[in-house]
Amino acid sequence: MTPTTTATAGPRLPGTWTIGLRRVRIELKTFARDREAAFFTMLLPVLLLIVFGSAFTGTVAPGISFSQYFLAGMLASGIVYTSFQNLAISIPQERDDGTLKRLQGTPMPQASYFVGKVGLVLVIYVVQVVSMLAIGVALFDVHLPSQASDWLTFTWVSALGLVCCTLLGVAFSAVPRSGRGASALVSPVVLVLQFTSGVFFQYDQLPSWMQHFAALFPLKWLCQGMRSVFLPDRFQSREPAGSWELERVAVVLIVWSIAAAVLAMRYFRFQRRDDR
Amino acid sequence: MLAGDRSADTTAVSVRGLRKTYGERTAVDGIDLDIPRGEVFALLGPNGAGKTTTVEILEGYRRRDAGEVSVLGHDPADATPAWRSRVGIVLQSVTDLSELTVDETVRHFAGYYPHPRDPEQVIATVGLTDSASQRVRLLSGGQRRRLDVALGILGRPELLFLDEPTTGFDPVARRQFWDLVEELAHEGTTILLTTHYLDEAERLADRVAVITDGRIVEVAAPASLGGRDAAEATVSWTEPGGDRRSLRTAEPTRVVAELAARIGGEVPDLSVARPTLEDTYLSLIGQRGGTP
After folding, report:
1. Does position B174 have pLDDT exceeding 60, yes or no?
2. C-alpha to C-alpha distance for A243 and B202, rounded to whole angstroms
3. What kind and span of H or E run contains A59?
4. Any idea what DSSP says for residue B8?
5. The model's pTM
6. Does the beta carbon of A8 lie under 8 angstroms from any beta carbon of chain B?
7. How far is B221 from chain A (nearest CA, A)?
8. Residue A145: partners with Cβ closer than 8 Å, 6 or more residues away
9. With 60 as the cut, is the pLDDT of residue B9 above it?
10. Pairwise CB contact (< 8 Å): B158 & A5
11. With an 8 Å Cβ cutoff, are B82 and A13 in contact?
């Protein structure tokens, strides 16, 4: 039990990835036990899918049900919920309650903290996608794409979207002054984007100023990417550009990712404002 | 770096001319400090005196505005994981980890260190074995604090920071905690303690620094702080007629012997008092009225 006086000899420090994977486990445990977080991030999108899917039984185009359209929008929203909303709310809370300060005082490399968060986001997203697809098929007669190329698109849109929105969530976590104020600040941002980006309403029927506004942000492009996967190609004529514009989807998400990374590195803080 | 490699073997903390201001307010106003390895050192001072600011600079949390600081031979402003693994920190007022159990928490944090203590043993050491499977959210204030201590000592730190560790403890828990600190000190851990409690400093610390308005006004062993050990004693007694008397003297033994001879036998209500640490402390921080 005697402390070593010279630090050079002795066992090595656990690596960034080793600790990062342990953080994934602890993040998942904490998430699963925190009812509020689990509800807003996990259950809400699934619930919305059931409510909207049951309430609106019409079609958005001949042979295309509203549910089919709405599923694409909710999968895109799921990316935003699990990464952006989740992190932009939970990180300020962890800064407020001392989690981050405690971690900063340990030998944990700061990168391990983010490995933990990314792992958490990935697991929640996968569970969410599987449950939404299952509910869509079981309750609302949604058709899943049969072509491998569609699933490939689904995968890269999801991956790029998660990268982009995770970075945005980390960057945005610098904005709320307190943990308590975080959800009041973040939820309206997400809601406004959902209304204007074609999640709750059909994008092609929105006023054009609203379309232009939404086109500045990632969610509109995530929805468009998801529509390319879940709607038949003939629906392309309804898109403002007359096509799915997948290249542009990728470019917008990459540009936002770079911007978010710069902002996150510049503004992310482990400590409360008054603690430095 | 202030302390060269050689002095880092014998010196745990070395501070020269430390200053920190928040806007217009000067929190730390030129502090010098040397703590040899193996010492239990207490920072004593009123709220807002600069204790926590000083300690958090040494812990690598806050930036300083001026001065030189060396902790275990390194500048804490450039804290690395290797340096962090040699330092244990028990912070004030954190409410994190609420959904995990005590056991999960300690096991998880053990995974951060190259050579951690056995989690189960640490939980036993801080007296939380019965609450090991409880969620941290459900612990009492004192139990939470003991968990903080468990996490602080988990990595076998060479230097342990304890920032007001027993605030909110009941007397029994405080005694148990003191025993634990003495055990750690006995094992050779250097301990830097901040506290408002004078009995805590007196019981635990080898040396005490009294800090007020961002300056250290004195550093001494608790028994000799403010010249307590050399101060005049006050002898009090009751005369056989019922008169209460007291006398300040540098020679209390002679006074008592004379009294005993004069009164012949037991002196009623006899007491010999020297200034308590509290009296000395209050006069050092300029709150007179405590001095006898």
Report:
1. yes
2. 79
3. strand A59-61
4. G
5. 0.86
6. no
7. 25
8. A151, A154, A229, A230
9. yes
10. yes
11. yes
